[in-house]
Amino acid sequence: MNNVLGRHLLVEFYDCDTQTLDDVAGIETHMNDAARACGATIVQSTFHRFEPWGVSGVVVISESHLAIHTWPEYGYASVDLYTCGDEIDPMGAYEHLRRVLGAQESEIQMLKRGNLDLIKARLEQNALSAAEAELSKSILLKGGVL
Amino acid sequence: MNNVLGRHLLVEFYDCDTQTLDDVAGIETHMNDAARACGATIVQSTFHRFEPWGVSGVVVISESHLAIHTWPEYGYASVDLYTCGDEIDPMGAYEHLRRVLGAQESEIQMLKRGNLDLIKARLEQNALSAAEAELSKSILLKGGVL
Q1: How far is A68 from A22, CA to CA, in rounded Å?
Q2: Distance from the CA of A111 to the CA of which of A5, A8, A72, A145 falls in 20 to 30 A?
Q3: Which chain B residues have a beta carbon less than 8 Å from that of A76?
Q4: In chain B, whose CA is at the least distance from the CA of A126?
Q5: Structural element, H or E, at residue B105
Q6: How far apart are CA B99 and CA B137, in angstroms?
């Protein structure tokens, strides 16, 4: 994990408890508990219930965010657990949610976000280009004086 | 797109304008404009600036969410554009953000969320299991009566 800024777990929870998926206050509690379960620091959370059913919400954490969208009619919830730094383990949040949503099946994809090798290479290239431009300018100026 | 519930663009913007990335009010405006650019309906938005630098924020839309995390010190922003339904095109939000953040380079991954074939197969299997259980119970009860 040294060469990336963040880890992003994309989770599909299938065959969950449908009443749980439609309870906006409960989902907000579960998502905040999930943030605490992985050691994250909660900054803000915002949740909304749609008509006739379904809940969407996000917990912004100091280390990125956790998001959920539920389809109670399908027993399905889509969850994003995006964390930065090595001290936070998004799997703790995943385990908590799998249990409280009563998911019978889940799929996980783990993606790395922010390639630090690429970022640093570009910063170095930009610094080099700026230095070259400065040098060219200096040579031109001296040429003009001579 | 008929067999999935959502489309999720994961975008890495490199070599952006650093001042833009550190301006929380500006980032919130750009993200709300990005939501409108792809035809989404904004439900709520929440943004936060970190010390000494960096902005995180999310726009919850009726069709899922848009999220951003910025690292001004690296000229880097990580963006999620997650939309549901065929009427919303997350590429409109991507194009808007690429321009206003001044990104010189970007990477995009498009993921499908919520496999409807799997969801429907599980619902049918559950309905079948419930019907079988009901039939077994009925046979047992009749057996007891006879």
Answers
A1: 12
A2: A72
A3: 5, 114, 119
A4: B15
A5: strand B105-115
A6: 64
pTM (predicted TM-score): 0.89
Residue B133: what pLDDT? 84
Residue B145: pLDDT above 60? Answer: no
Q: What is the pLDDT, as a whole number, of residue B57?
A: 97
Starting at the edge strand found earlier in the chain, the sheet holding B64-71 runs B42-49, B55-61, B64-71, B76-84, B4-14, B105-115
From the list B71, B111, B119, which residue is nearest A14 (CB)? B119
Residue ranges of chain A with pLDDT lower than 50?
146
The two beta strands, A105-115 and B42-49, are unpaired
**Least CB–CB distance from A44: residue in B48, B65, B67:** B48
Q: Which of A93, A113, A120, A46 is nearest to B9 (CA)?
A: A113
3-state secondary structure of B102: coil
